[in-house]
Write a structure and sequence with these properties.
Layout (H helix, E strand, L loop, with lengths): L1 H8 L1 H10 L8 E5 L5 E5 L1 H39 L8 H11 L6 E2 L1 H11 L6 H10 L7 E2 H11 L4 H15 L2 H15 L8 E3 H11 L8 H10 L6 E3 H13 L15 H26 L8 H14 L8
Antiparallel strand pairs: 1-2, 3-4, 5-6
Helix pairs in contact: 2-3, 4-7, 6-7, 6-8, 9-10, 9-12, 10-11
Amino acid sequence: MGQCVTKCKNPTSSLGSKSGDKESASKSHKRVESAGGVVHREDSSAPSSKSTSELLNGTKALEAAAAETPVISAAMREPCRDERLDGDGLSMARIEELFSLYKDELEDAILEEGMEKFCDDLCVDPAEFRVLVLAWKFQAATMCKFTRKEFVDGCKAIRADSIKGICSRFPCLLLEARGEENFKDLYRFTFQFGLDADEGQRSLQRDIAIALWRLVFTQDTPAILEHWLDFLAENPSGVRGISRDTWNMFLNFTQAIGPDLSNYSEDEAWPSLFDTFVEWELERRKREEERGPVTQEGGGGGTGGDCPTTDRLDTEGSRGSQTWGGH
């Protein structure tokens, strides 16, 4: 660009020789003989000046057009090259723009405030299963936070570059999460997602683990789940945190052990917390059976199974106010 400006300011330096070539023999000089026989050379400067002026105006117009043409071409070419990926019409520019709507002013990431706005625009609750699945697809390392890379790569992974596009992908994502291997991956991701990376946590806080277990099993709830969560809430074993091994083994527990717990064996390599739970649960069921006939004789109109169910609903209501996104 600097070279163009220089040429416009000094047009004769590059254009003078071209304007005078054809007229050099006839117009550049006149021979005039004086009385004294001295020969003078007289320059014809006026026509040359006019020609230079015309060329200058023409040069400016041509160079202005030349300067504009690459800009217009770039503006037309770059979106075509950058916006379309894999022929799906996915726009990187729209993904970046979407990220900018929610990113923090100081940090190059979407933080808690931006995440709330993002969820509002998606018409989802931050504590619902769809948000967990979205975080899984984005491979988010921390709750209530999407880095630029996580957001951009996540949008590319689900093939969406707008709020409407992300919303339209939810049914497919929920169906995908039902697959056995996919759910196992989602389940293990959820443990890591619940850790506080800033504090270097290696185990989940008990309350956070309870909320995440209830959340991750939203679509397919094991029959034993609520009893397990009641056991943890009552905390007879004094557990304060859930290790990764315990978290992973519980999924195996729900798949291998029937709801009546009859095929559970302490001789197998289950975490000791599971031994305590099975003992606690069998004792609870025994008390229910013993209490059942007494409740019926009392004329209360209920059964032995109604009272624990009511207590459990009350407990669920109080735990429902907890958010899985906090630490």
